[in-house]
Amino acid sequence: MVPQVAFDMVAVLRRIGWQLDYPEEQTCCGQPAFNTGYWDEARPVAERFVRIFRQAEAVICPSGSCTAMVRNFYPELLAKSALRDDALALGKRVFEFSEFLVDYARVTDVGACFPHRVTYHDSCHLLRELHIQEQPRTLLRHVGGLELIELPYADECCGFGGSFAVKLPEISAAMGMVKARNIESTGADYVTSCDPSCLMHISGVLRRRRSQAKAIHLASILAVQQAVPGRNPVAEEVAQ
Q1: How does the average pLDDT of the chain come out, rounded?
Q2: Per-residue pLDDT reduced to its tens digit, 134-155
Q3: What's the pTM?
Q4: Residues 103, 108, 114, 117: is their CA dihedral positive or negative?
Q5: Is 148 in a helix, a strand, or coil?
Q6: Sequence ranges of the domains in the chain
Q7: How far is CA 180 from CA 152, 167, 169, 198, in A?
Q8: Calpha distance 218→188 (Å, rounded)
Q9: How many C-beta neighbours within 10 Å does residue 190 have?
Q10: Is the dihedral of CA 90, 140, 188, 130 positive or negative?
Q11: What is the CATH T-level fold of the domain 117-239, as seen in this structure?
């Protein structure tokens, strides 16, 4: 949905000296099927993920929900699988992007420059499943020119929730509207988060409201090294 986020994550990791590999045979982690109760369909997808990545030193995801799926829910999903032990071991080496930078790579300043007012939304899986809260903020505070403004009720759900938005669209939209109003109240130019799914939902609500604020993934902020007067092509790409 937002391939630029992956490219931006790669750019940041290469900048700080990490060698990367992208296994082309990889597919989904299986979370959509798992969350909607189709465990028998999710299981072979999860096993495929484990087989493909089990030799990796670290697996980095620009998504809290994908990381939580592998780390927290694979042990239950694959409890009777021959790959259970591999899944448990792999889960300890799967990191969300901001978590990897701050806690594993021990890097808080990636040399980014983003001279804008930015507010941060705590996505549900990142905060509640992975207990990651300060790492993204720490990275944002080290971005040149960036003014970080705390979002009112930052830890409240944006209303997306995957299939929740499809099954209960009226409630999902109402929650999105509340989130959008809180974003607008900060006067921020951008709202950022670590989950593309949240940002997709928030971005749609902001556009419908004709808001001046735009949604952008954390990786796309960290990827920017030099400001372009009057324009930020990275943010424009993600906001589409």
Answers
A1: 93
A2: 999 999 999 999 999 999 999 9
A3: 0.90
A4: positive
A5: strand
A6: 3-103, 117-239
A7: 11, 21, 16, 12
A8: 15
A9: 22
A10: positive
A11: Rossmann fold (3.40.50)
